[in-house]
Amino acid sequence: MIKIITGQAGEGKTKFLIESANQMIPSLKGNAIYIDSCTNHRYALAHEIRLIEAANMPLQSRSSFTAFLCGIISANHDIEIVFIDELCKLTQCNLDEIVGCFDDIQKLSDCYHIDFVIGTSCSKSDLPQYLTPYLIA
Q: Nearest CA to 50 among 26, 74, 31, 33?
């Protein structure tokens, strides 16, 4: 399952992602991963959540980001949920370019039974129609 959180900078997407991740910890049987472009939120996340700072990774495309996710999944077979903060920023792609990435993420989700919660800086109206079913209200 994929969920998308939208909003402009400063509207609380990251705070929502962190709170959601922390609240899920007691109910998880597997691991939680939080992928971010920095480590500024290290102390806001519960210690059970694995923070991956991806700013220095060469993730300039959909395919490189998909390969990055595959590497994370292959190294840890009991991942239950992955939080991704600022997908467009991490991949250096715009919303139109990133649509295909969601196909790849959906395949990973289906194959490995992993939930993905993704934050991206845009308004709900700017989100491509294809992605609106994934929106969190």
A: 33
